[in-house]
Amino acid sequence: MAKINQSVTQNYRIRPLTFSTPLLEGESLTSWLIRAALRQGCSPLTFTHYYWPEHRIWTYDVDKGFKYINSQIHSDIAVLAVTAIDAINNQTLINFSKILSIESSSKVALLWTQPLSKRNRYSRIGYPYCYECMTNNKEAHLKLQWRFTWSVCCIEHRKFLQVDCPYCNLPYQPQLIEPEQEFINQCHSCHHKLDKTTLDTIPSEVVYKFQLLANQVLYSKQGTILGKVVDIAEWFDYLLFLINLVRQALKNPDYMFGKLLLELGIDLSELSSPKTSLRFDFLPLEERIVLIEHAYYLLQVECDDWIYYCQELDITQNSFQWSKRTIVPKAFSQVYDQLPKVPSREYKKQSSGIHPASLEAVMAAWSRLQRKIEMRESYDKHLKKE
Q1: Residue 288: CB partners within 8 Å, gap ≥ 6?
Q2: What's the pLDDT tens digit per position in 244-255?
């Protein structure tokens, strides 16, 4: 059994809290810091400034952890929460990225993590939550699992996650809650409890099963692809490859990959590509759901079926190199190696004249601009209230 870190800290203030606030299983560090602050009767900003005055804690993505800022903070939190240092280290996004061998930093959004797009203390994208998990004042807390972009619903209540207040529609900003609000399940702006949904639909059985599968891979550190057991990093690499394959098919359902998915039982004719063309982690929930559902179906396709239909449609190894950054995952090699390779074409140098962007590129840029405008308007409303 892990022992509580008893090392002497340079900060004399670090000792178990007057009003104990244990770190809950699966709880995010953001959630614990806010609950601990409110339990002591102060704001999250006051709480973190009291213990770590040399760091502007809330300008960072707290859920990543603090090893890139000052690893001593983890030891301090372990003492404050009267828990094991391993529990603090394990319940961070950086711990997950370390498992996947993903490079992490304080400023760059991690792969498979929903970004918060911080500007000072303000997050221009709301923190994901389940409204049913937030109904009980004293038990309400935020789960680290909700930050993962494959998590689109609450497993316990089978409800879609939300990021905005259902009453004022502003992004949910728990780090801005004031002490008089007492609990984390409040909107910092209108002070309403987050106790209702803005979505009428419920997750499909496919979405629910996919999330259970992804969580199982996360906890067991391994998964199965094309009949072979692979480690967690290979499994998530393959999943991202399938998601991007679906995105390529959505660009032109009547072309090669659209035909391939149709042969494999997926009809994309009534669907459209993500409007912004941003990477998967930055897409809104409704667009991630579409990609997840179809990627889950492709996870069930057997190796022989992949090879057969690729050969029927004259799909080659070159076909899967749809961009300079595309990396065919190791787990897909048993299919990829069976396909022919066409010698690379030599392209003549293009003239230096002006070449207009495609309609698709223009519309994606316009959607990204609209997204920035919406986030800016939300931030401006926040500034006016301060």
Answers
A1: 149, 150, 152, 280
A2: 999 999 988 888
